[in-house]
Amino acid sequence: MKIAAINGSPKGRESITHLMVRSFLQGAERAGAETVTVFLAEKDIRHCRGCMACWFKTPGKCIIDDDDMAEILSQTEGVDVVVWATPLKYANVSSMLKVFVERLLVFANPFMLVDQTGETRHPKKAPGAESSFYRAKLVAIANGGLGQRGHFQVLSHWIQRLARNNLTEVIGEIYAPQGPLLVNPAAELQPIIADYLGLLEKSGAEVVTNGGISPETQKLLDRNLIPEGIYLQQINSYFKMLLSSVKHPYVNSW
Q: How far apart are CA 137 and CA 79, in angstroms?
Protein backbone atom coordinates (compact mmCIF):
# COMPACT_ATOMS: atom_id res chain seq x y z
CA MET A 1 0.00 0.00 0.00
CA LYS A 2 1.16 3.51 -0.82
CA ILE A 3 -0.07 6.49 1.18
CA ALA A 4 0.43 10.12 0.17
CA ALA A 5 -0.09 12.92 2.67
CA ILE A 6 -0.79 16.36 1.22
CA ASN A 7 0.07 18.87 3.94
CA GLY A 8 -1.75 22.15 3.34
CA SER A 9 -0.34 24.06 6.31
CA PRO A 10 1.53 27.30 5.55
CA LYS A 11 3.91 26.33 8.37
CA GLY A 12 4.95 23.16 6.54
CA ARG A 13 7.36 20.99 8.49
CA GLU A 14 6.99 23.16 11.59
CA SER A 15 3.22 22.78 11.76
CA ILE A 16 0.97 20.97 14.19
CA THR A 17 -0.53 19.43 11.06
CA HIS A 18 2.80 17.78 10.29
CA LEU A 19 3.14 16.55 13.87
CA MET A 20 -0.17 14.74 13.50
CA VAL A 21 0.52 13.43 10.00
CA ARG A 22 4.00 12.23 10.92
CA SER A 23 2.63 10.09 13.75
CA PHE A 24 -0.12 8.67 11.52
CA LEU A 25 2.40 7.78 8.80
CA GLN A 26 4.81 6.23 11.28
CA GLY A 27 2.10 3.77 12.24
CA ALA A 28 1.31 3.11 8.58
CA GLU A 29 4.98 2.48 7.79
CA ARG A 30 5.32 0.03 10.68
CA ALA A 31 2.35 -1.83 9.20
CA GLY A 32 4.19 -2.08 5.88
CA ALA A 33 3.01 0.93 3.88
CA GLU A 34 5.13 3.11 1.63
CA THR A 35 4.51 6.77 2.43
CA VAL A 36 5.24 10.15 0.91
CA THR A 37 4.53 13.62 2.29
CA VAL A 38 4.06 16.69 0.13
CA PHE A 39 4.43 20.07 1.84
CA LEU A 40 2.47 22.54 -0.25
CA ALA A 41 4.21 25.40 1.60
CA GLU A 42 7.41 24.34 -0.19
CA LYS A 43 5.80 24.14 -3.63
CA ASP A 44 4.77 26.58 -6.31
CA ILE A 45 1.20 25.70 -7.23
CA ARG A 46 -0.61 28.17 -9.48
CA HIS A 47 -4.34 28.77 -9.31
CA CYS A 48 -6.58 26.91 -11.75
CA ARG A 49 -7.52 29.39 -14.48
CA GLY A 50 -10.87 27.79 -15.20
CA CYS A 51 -9.98 27.81 -18.90
CA MET A 52 -10.96 24.15 -19.42
CA ALA A 53 -8.02 23.70 -21.77
CA CYS A 54 -7.29 20.42 -19.97
CA TRP A 55 -10.64 19.13 -21.26
CA PHE A 56 -10.92 20.59 -24.74
CA LYS A 57 -7.51 21.75 -26.01
CA THR A 58 -4.92 19.55 -24.30
CA PRO A 59 -6.99 16.67 -22.88
CA GLY A 60 -5.58 15.33 -19.63
CA LYS A 61 -2.85 17.97 -19.49
CA CYS A 62 -2.97 21.31 -17.69
CA ILE A 63 -2.01 24.35 -19.71
CA ILE A 64 0.08 25.51 -16.72
CA ASP A 65 3.40 23.72 -17.13
CA ASP A 66 5.86 25.92 -15.23
CA ASP A 67 4.99 25.13 -11.60
CA ASP A 68 5.41 22.10 -9.29
CA MET A 69 2.12 20.34 -9.99
CA ALA A 70 3.56 17.77 -12.40
CA GLU A 71 6.33 16.93 -9.94
CA ILE A 72 3.81 16.27 -7.17
CA LEU A 73 1.63 14.08 -9.36
CA SER A 74 4.67 12.05 -10.37
CA GLN A 75 5.76 11.70 -6.75
CA THR A 76 2.34 10.45 -5.69
CA GLU A 77 1.62 8.17 -8.64
CA GLY A 78 0.06 4.86 -7.66
CA VAL A 79 -1.18 5.91 -4.22
CA ASP A 80 -3.89 3.85 -2.58
CA VAL A 81 -4.73 6.34 0.18
CA VAL A 82 -4.52 10.15 0.18
CA VAL A 83 -4.33 11.97 3.49
CA TRP A 84 -5.69 15.49 3.13
CA ALA A 85 -4.06 17.37 6.01
CA THR A 86 -4.78 20.96 6.95
CA PRO A 87 -5.09 23.42 9.80
CA LEU A 88 -8.63 24.68 10.22
CA LYS A 89 -8.88 28.05 8.47
CA TYR A 90 -12.15 29.93 9.00
CA ALA A 91 -13.95 26.60 9.46
CA ASN A 92 -12.54 25.20 6.21
CA VAL A 93 -9.41 23.79 4.58
CA SER A 94 -6.40 26.02 4.01
CA SER A 95 -6.17 28.08 0.84
CA MET A 96 -3.05 26.13 -0.18
CA LEU A 97 -4.93 22.85 -0.08
CA LYS A 98 -7.91 24.29 -1.96
CA VAL A 99 -5.68 25.59 -4.77
CA PHE A 100 -4.07 22.17 -5.11
CA VAL A 101 -7.39 20.30 -5.21
CA GLU A 102 -8.78 22.61 -7.89
CA ARG A 103 -5.85 21.74 -10.14
CA LEU A 104 -6.97 18.10 -10.08
CA LEU A 105 -9.79 19.08 -12.44
CA VAL A 106 -7.43 18.00 -15.21
CA PHE A 107 -8.24 14.37 -14.37
CA ALA A 108 -12.03 14.71 -14.43
CA ASN A 109 -14.28 13.63 -17.27
CA PRO A 110 -16.21 16.61 -18.69
CA PHE A 111 -19.41 14.62 -19.25
CA MET A 112 -22.08 14.46 -16.57
CA LEU A 113 -24.19 11.63 -15.27
CA VAL A 114 -26.83 11.17 -12.61
CA ASP A 115 -25.68 8.95 -9.75
CA GLN A 116 -27.76 6.50 -7.73
CA THR A 117 -29.04 9.27 -5.46
CA GLY A 118 -30.18 11.48 -8.31
CA GLU A 119 -27.29 13.95 -8.13
CA THR A 120 -25.20 14.95 -11.14
CA ARG A 121 -21.46 14.39 -11.14
CA HIS A 122 -18.61 13.79 -13.55
CA PRO A 123 -17.92 10.12 -14.32
CA LYS A 124 -14.54 8.64 -13.67
CA LYS A 125 -12.16 8.33 -16.54
CA ALA A 126 -11.50 4.93 -18.04
CA PRO A 127 -9.23 2.60 -16.02
CA GLY A 128 -5.62 3.43 -16.63
CA ALA A 129 -6.37 7.00 -17.64
CA GLU A 130 -7.31 8.34 -14.22
CA SER A 131 -5.13 10.00 -11.60
CA SER A 132 -4.40 8.17 -8.38
CA PHE A 133 -6.25 11.01 -6.67
CA TYR A 134 -9.44 9.84 -8.40
CA ARG A 135 -9.31 6.29 -7.13
CA ALA A 136 -7.49 6.53 -3.79
CA LYS A 137 -9.38 6.25 -0.54
CA LEU A 138 -9.34 9.33 1.64
CA VAL A 139 -8.30 10.29 5.16
CA ALA A 140 -8.77 13.77 6.64
CA ILE A 141 -6.42 15.07 9.33
CA ALA A 142 -6.92 18.56 10.72
CA ASN A 143 -6.42 20.64 13.82
CA GLY A 144 -7.83 23.90 15.11
CA GLY A 145 -7.59 26.17 18.12
CA LEU A 146 -11.21 27.02 18.95
CA GLY A 147 -11.58 23.95 21.12
CA GLN A 148 -14.81 22.38 19.85
CA ARG A 149 -15.34 19.58 17.36
CA GLY A 150 -18.29 21.32 15.73
CA HIS A 151 -15.93 23.76 14.02
CA PHE A 152 -14.86 20.91 11.70
CA GLN A 153 -18.34 20.40 10.23
CA VAL A 154 -17.58 22.13 6.92
CA LEU A 155 -14.29 20.28 6.51
CA SER A 156 -15.96 16.95 7.25
CA HIS A 157 -18.71 17.65 4.73
CA TRP A 158 -16.07 18.69 2.17
CA ILE A 159 -14.07 15.46 2.47
CA GLN A 160 -17.25 13.39 2.17
CA ARG A 161 -18.31 15.28 -0.96
CA LEU A 162 -14.84 14.93 -2.44
CA ALA A 163 -15.02 11.18 -1.95
CA ARG A 164 -18.47 11.04 -3.50
CA ASN A 165 -17.42 13.04 -6.53
CA ASN A 166 -14.40 10.78 -7.02
CA LEU A 167 -16.41 7.58 -6.55
CA THR A 168 -14.29 6.55 -3.59
CA GLU A 169 -14.72 6.56 0.19
CA VAL A 170 -13.48 8.26 3.34
CA ILE A 171 -11.79 5.74 5.64
CA GLY A 172 -10.77 8.11 8.40
CA GLU A 173 -11.46 11.57 9.81
CA ILE A 174 -9.15 12.82 12.57
CA TYR A 175 -9.83 16.26 14.00
CA ALA A 176 -7.97 17.85 16.93
CA PRO A 177 -10.01 20.83 18.19
CA GLN A 178 -7.40 21.66 20.86
CA GLY A 179 -4.50 21.52 18.44
CA PRO A 180 -2.22 24.09 20.16
CA LEU A 181 -1.91 21.77 23.15
CA LEU A 182 0.04 19.28 21.01
CA VAL A 183 3.05 21.61 21.04
CA ASN A 184 2.60 22.91 24.58
CA PRO A 185 5.79 22.25 26.61
CA ALA A 186 3.99 21.99 29.98
CA ALA A 187 5.19 18.86 31.80
CA GLU A 188 1.68 17.84 32.89
CA LEU A 189 0.58 17.70 29.26
CA GLN A 190 3.35 15.45 27.99
CA PRO A 191 1.66 12.13 28.91
CA ILE A 192 -1.59 13.34 27.29
CA ILE A 193 0.24 14.39 24.13
CA ALA A 194 2.18 11.14 23.97
CA ASP A 195 -1.04 9.15 24.33
CA TYR A 196 -2.72 11.09 21.53
CA LEU A 197 0.24 10.73 19.17
CA GLY A 198 0.22 7.02 19.97
CA LEU A 199 -3.43 6.86 18.91
CA LEU A 200 -2.50 8.58 15.65
CA GLU A 201 0.14 5.92 15.01
CA LYS A 202 -2.38 3.20 15.80
CA SER A 203 -4.88 4.70 13.38
CA GLY A 204 -2.24 4.76 10.63
CA ALA A 205 -1.51 1.09 11.21
CA GLU A 206 -5.22 0.24 11.20
CA VAL A 207 -5.74 1.94 7.85
CA VAL A 208 -3.09 -0.36 6.39
CA THR A 209 -4.09 -3.59 8.10
CA ASN A 210 -7.87 -3.15 8.39
CA GLY A 211 -8.72 -0.67 5.64
CA GLY A 212 -9.90 1.96 8.09
CA ILE A 213 -9.80 3.29 11.64
CA SER A 214 -11.52 1.03 14.15
CA PRO A 215 -14.51 2.42 16.09
CA GLU A 216 -12.59 1.95 19.34
CA THR A 217 -9.61 4.01 18.16
CA GLN A 218 -11.90 6.63 16.59
CA LYS A 219 -13.75 7.06 19.86
CA LEU A 220 -10.49 7.73 21.70
CA LEU A 221 -9.30 10.14 19.01
CA ASP A 222 -12.56 12.08 19.27
CA ARG A 223 -12.02 12.93 22.94
CA ASN A 224 -10.76 16.36 23.94
CA LEU A 225 -7.22 16.41 25.28
CA ILE A 226 -8.34 18.36 28.35
CA PRO A 227 -11.75 19.56 29.57
CA GLU A 228 -13.19 22.32 27.39
CA GLY A 229 -13.59 24.84 30.21
CA ILE A 230 -9.99 24.48 31.33
CA TYR A 231 -8.78 24.79 27.74
CA LEU A 232 -10.68 28.04 27.17
CA GLN A 233 -9.43 29.51 30.43
CA GLN A 234 -5.82 28.63 29.67
CA ILE A 235 -5.82 29.76 26.05
CA ASN A 236 -7.49 33.08 26.87
CA SER A 237 -4.99 33.72 29.65
CA TYR A 238 -2.18 33.01 27.20
CA PHE A 239 -3.58 35.40 24.59
CA LYS A 240 -4.14 38.09 27.23
CA MET A 241 -0.51 37.82 28.27
CA LEU A 242 0.70 38.16 24.66
CA LEU A 243 -1.59 41.07 23.85
CA SER A 244 -0.78 42.92 27.06
CA SER A 245 2.82 43.23 26.00
CA VAL A 246 1.77 45.26 22.94
CA LYS A 247 -1.10 47.12 24.70
CA HIS A 248 -3.68 45.64 22.32
CA PRO A 249 -7.22 47.07 22.74
CA TYR A 250 -8.71 43.55 22.82
CA VAL A 251 -7.21 43.03 26.27
CA ASN A 252 -9.74 45.39 27.87
CA SER A 253 -12.67 43.49 26.35
CA TRP A 254 -12.08 40.51 28.63
A: 9
Indicate if the pLDDT at residue 121 is higher than 90.
no
- First-last CA distance in the chain: 51
Separation of alpha carbons 64 and 233, rounded Å: 48
Give the span between the Cα atoms of 175 and 87, in whole angstroms.
10
Q: Given the DSSP bridges, would you call strands 137-143 and 170-176 parallel, antiparallel or unpaired?
A: parallel
CA gap 203, 29 in Å, rounded: 12
Q: Give residues with Cβ within 8 angstroms of 17, minimum separation 6.
A: 7, 8, 9, 11, 85, 86, 87, 141, 142, 143
Interacting residues of 233 by C-beta distance below 8 A, sequence separation 6+: none
Threshold 0.90, pTM exceeds: yes
- In DSSP terms, 84 is beta-bridged to 6, 140
Separation CA 28–CA 204 (nearest Å): 4
> Could you please report the per-residue DSSP string of 6-65?
EE--TTGGGSHHHHHHHHHHHHHHHTT-EEEEEEGGGS--PPP----HHHHTSTTS-S--
